[in-house]
Specification:
Chain lengths: 435, 484
């Protein structure tokens, strides 16, 4: 592709200044990258944390309970302290496999960069109503939970007064409490699965504490209202998640919030030809967070949807450091062990481990994944080929809470190069909802 | 003094007719009961510009279809509406259907359709590898095209408006009578009078017709439901894929849209309530099942949305276009269902010519060209984008990331002659919110820009007019109401 514009050279270019992009930027600078640039489409840094004014952020990383904006501010302060250039109001339009990045902004127009390394940190977006094909009208009053959160917390407007929430993702749960506190009546939180996809602490603190019923095994089967929403019909579902006739309940409401899943925002990654994992809907990466395209890294919710920002930051620090080293020309190990999902496990990240050369240092490697359903007293096992190299017992495992384990550096060094499988051994107990 | 003309209905037919009339010396007003033009059938249909092999030879449908189809490309270009001509296929899966394909081929020739041929299985699969390999043969209609029905309607409205046509939205005509030598038109917003009335009221057109004529018509609203799928790097189908009607009923189509999404549908269900464009689990399941015949690898993982539209089916099964019998100065286009979108340019032209001839309208000394919007940012090259940003820095601000719509484009849509007044109005004109996130990202920003441009509070902004407000009130307002 020809560009009339002369590309500007950048050693490490980061797409997105949410928690992932900011942490990656800090780590890259601390690892020695001078020529570093962060592009952010919103007018300010911080990503989705800006509108998450509830607390509970930072317990792992800072051992403190912060609000979203407070958590973000710590990274923003550090980014400023390090003198990292962040261009806000700048939307990236294209990333190519050879790391040419095109962006636009109000004040600079079209900008083209040639980057030594690119870190994809675009975050995720919410699954919309349309994707669920819920029957009914297409009236006003249907919001994704995050859009409603933006209206309430950033704009100071209430989307409605009587609310039903479909899906029990964390943002939906947080908004149940938020709207209740602002004077709305939240009638129910409806979840098609037999368990919530949100964190247990949010179910307790956002639903139970406010007597908001959580209707498991239920879904919305009809939406009414020509102009503004006037009501929804909720029905119970069977094991195949199909509505059971005769179980319908009607709710008079003016608002339906959807918290039915987050989708890593990989439009730019796809353009660049970065292979994605069907399980995570994010890039396939190695333990340095490098994608299958050399020099392109991914971290945070664009890689796989996390539950806690603390882990987004931790992952992104790794990506920032690795991208800095890549841009500086550092070589990594050549032998690669693929990592696969075994039974009961979904979307292990990373999907590849680079086995260190004999004379280079090995590091411990963390593997993260989601249990495919709820398991009690199960064992997580890791196999190298057929040999067990790790096992740990867990009292409870659920899809709503990401699981992780760490392979010690000695274990990593000793990897055979055969396929590594992560599985959950539930003692023969088969989860009926495992699909 | 100029004659006063009321066009009833701001769909594609009403706007096409008003646009033609705007070249003549007359005072034309379009009355639309919805909040925007293209609020009825023109808002939600397949967007196909039919080649014309389908309609019975000699029918008004055949005549206007074939003529409209021939006019389409130049017509769209003249007002700045999108048009592509990927061609269409009608698939046959057995001998009975092959016979039907042969019949459509012959019928097309009689209707004067160009570019027809019959393809055998291998030829079909070579052109469309995702087609069911059990296909026997197919009719290929090279002249079948695509447009965006609401974008075309908006463009026609703008062209009429710059030439003096007035548009009144939220104005429903409740009765028309002939008194004191003029038409007395009662509307939801008061009485109006006119020398000439033109009934382009879609599903309501029979009701209005029957007030003016002894000859009665019956329109049955027929609902059609669709799936819309996200665009892929490599499109699943490049032609519009029809099925032949069979004992199992009329098939559904699988078609690219003019914007390279993929459309599956429509179902066909007669309903009592013409305003009921809700989707149903049953009809969507039927669309899914039927589309599978064309596309056995059907994959609905990339569904963006589902929607329903309403067709105005007249019992006589043909278009009724022209003067209303027994009412001098009254004209109509009734029963405009498929291929009505294709026929619109020809119907608009025919109605205008008849009205001009019968009422002695004189051409204006000057007919301004359509205010064609600049090339969409999404379709620009990097150099063009750079230039656009230099012209207007607001092109450097992306409002809708899925469809790559800029702030400059959103503002321009609101400032158009018949401008957007709601979130969906902006969506129809710019595509902001049409993409995979369905406005989750851009709608708060679009709402803000609407407020700035229109000088209203956020609580005054609707999704698509009427009582469809987006926000219930400020936090303080809601809290106060709860306290009270």
């Amino acid at each position: 592709m020809e560009h009339a514009l002369q590309p500007q050279k950048v050693d490490v270019l980061i797409v997105g200044a949410g928690p992932a992009g900011l942490a990656a930027a800090i780590a890259a600078r601390e690892a020695g990258t001078e020529n570093l640039l962060v592009l952010e489409r919103e007018p300010e840094m911080g990503g989705i944390l800006k509108q998450c004014i509830h607390n509970g952020f930072g317990l792992h990383r800072f051992k403190e309970e912060l609000t979203g904006p407070e958590y973000a501010q710590r990274d923003v302060d550090r980014v400023k302290e390090l003198g990292i250039e962040v261009r806000c109001g700048t939307t990236v339009l294209e990333v190519t496999a050879d790391r040419q990045v095109t962006a636009i902004s109000r004040d600079r127009g079209v900008q083209v960069f040639q980057a030594g390394a690119v870190i994809l940190a675009m975050g995720c977006r919410e699954r919309p109503r349309g994707a669920l094909a819920i029957p009914g009208t297409r009236c006003a009053g249907i919001f994704s939970a995050g859009t409603a959160q933006k209206y309430v917390n950033l704009e100071g407007y209430m989307p409605g007064r009587r609310v039903v929430i479909l899906g029990s993702g964390d943002i939906g749960l947080i908004m149940a409490r938020r709207m209740t506190l602002q004077g709305a009546k939240v009638l129910a939180c409806v979840e098609i699965m037999p368990y919530s996809s949100g964190l247990n602490r949010n179910i307790v603190q956002c639903l139970h504490d406010y007597n908001i019923p959580l209707m498991l095994n239920h879904t919305v089967v009809d939406i009414q209202g020509r102009e503004r929403l006037t009501g929804v019909t909720v029905a119970q579902v069977d094991e195949r998640r199909q509505p059971i006739p005769g179980t319908e309940t009607h709710f008079d409401c003016d608002t339906l919030l959807l918290s039915v899943g987050l989708i890593p925002e990989n439009e730019l990654s796809k353009q660049a030809g970065v292979p994605l994992s069907p399980a995570t809907q994010g890039a396939v990466v190695d333990d340095t967070l490098q994608t299958e395209i050399p020099g392109i890294f991914a971290c945070g919710n664009v890689l796989h949807v996390h539950d806690l920002v603390d882990f987004v930051s931790a992952e992104s620090f790794k990506a920032g450091k690795a991208a800095a080293e890549y841009a500086a020309g550092k070589k990594t190990g050549n032998r690669i062990a693929p990592v696969a999902d075994g039974s009961g496990v979904r979307g292990v990240v990373p999907q590849k481990i680079r086995i260190p050369d004999a004379n280079s240092p090995a590091e411990a490697i963390q593997l993260m994944f989601r249990p495919a359903c709820v398991y009690e007293n199960a064992t997580i096992r890791v196999l190298d080929g057929d040999t067990e190299i790790y096992k740990v017992k867990k009292r409870i495992l659920a899809p709503g809470e990401m699981a992780d384990l760490t392979l010690k550096s000695d274990t990593v060094r000793a990897l055979s190069g055969e396929k590594i499988t992560v599985l959950i051994d539930a003692g023969g107990e088969v989860c009926a909802w495992n699909k | 003094m100029d004659m006063e003309i009321l066009v009833i209905g701001g769909g594609v037919i009403g706007c096409a007719t008003a646009r033609e009339l705007s070249a003549y010396q007359a005072k034309v007003t379009v009355l639309e009961r919805g909040p925007d033009v293209a609020s009825g059938a023109s808002k939600a249909n397949s967007g196909i510009v039919h080649a014309g092999f389908d309609a019975k030879p000699g029918s008004a449908k055949a005549h206007f279809n074939v003529e409209g189809s021939r006019m389409y490309e130049a017509y769209c270009r003249s007002v700045g509406a999108p048009y592509t001509q990927p061609g269409a296929m009608v698939l046959a899966f057995d001998e009975e259907q092959r016979a039907h394909v042969e019949k459509l081929y012959q019928q097309g020739l009689v209707n004067g359709v160009k570019g027809l041929s019959v393809l055998e299985r291998d030829q079909v699969l070579a052109l469309e590898p995702n087609t069911n390999p059990e296909v026997e043969c197919a009719l290929l209609a090279a002249s079948s095209g695509l447009t965006s029905p609401y974008e075309l309607t908006c463009a026609l409205a703008d062209h009429a408006a710059v030439n003096g046509t007035r548009f009144l939205m939220d104005t429903e005509v409740t009765s028309i009578t002939w008194e004191n030598g003029r038409y007395q038109v009662a509307t939801s917003r008061g009485r109006m009078t006119a020398d000439i009335v033109i009934n382009c009221a879609g599903v309501q057109s029979a009701k209005l017709h029957n007030q003016l004529s002894e000859k009665k018509y019956t329109i049955t609203p027929r609902k059609g439901e669709y799936y819309l799928l996200d665009r892929e790097n490599k499109p699943m189908f490049s032609h519009t894929m029809f099925q032949t009607p069979s004992k199992m009923g009329k098939g559904v189509l699988v078609s690219p849209t003019v914007h390279n999404s993929l459309l599956l549908g429509p179902s066909a269900m007669n309903v009592d309530d013409a305003g009921d464009v809700s989707t149903t689990a049953e009809a969507l399941r039927l669309v899914r099942d039927k589309a599978m015949l064309t596309w056995p690898g059907e994959n609905l993982r990339s569904v963006i949305t589902t929607f329903a539209g309403m067709r105005a089916h007249e019992q006589g099964d043909d278009f009724i276009v022209g003067a209303i019998e027994g009412s001098k100065g009254a004209y109509e286009a009734v029963g405009i269902e498929s291929p009505g979108l294709t026929a619109a340019p020809a119907i608009g032209k025919a109605l205008c010519e008849q009205i001009v001839a019968e009422n002695g309208l004189k051409p204006k000394s000057e007919w301004l060209p359509a205010p064609i919007p600049p090339k969409a940012f999404a379709a620009m090259t990097t150099e063009e984008r750079q230039h656009a940003c230099e012209q207007d820095p607001e092109n450097g601000v992306l409002v809708c990331r899925c469809e790559q719509v800029t702030e400059a484009e959103v503002r321009a849509a609101i400032r158009r002659p018949v401008g957007a007044r709601s979130i969906d109005g902006v969506k129809r004109r710019t595509r902001a919110g049409m993409g995979r996130c369905q406005g989750g990202f851009c709608s708060p920003r679009v709402l803000e820009i609407l407020c700035e441009e229109l000088g209203v509070r956020p609580t005054a902004i609707t999704k698509d007019g009427g009582n469809g407000y987006v926000l219930a009130g400020t936090l303080a307002e809601i809290a106060r109401k709860e306290d009270a």
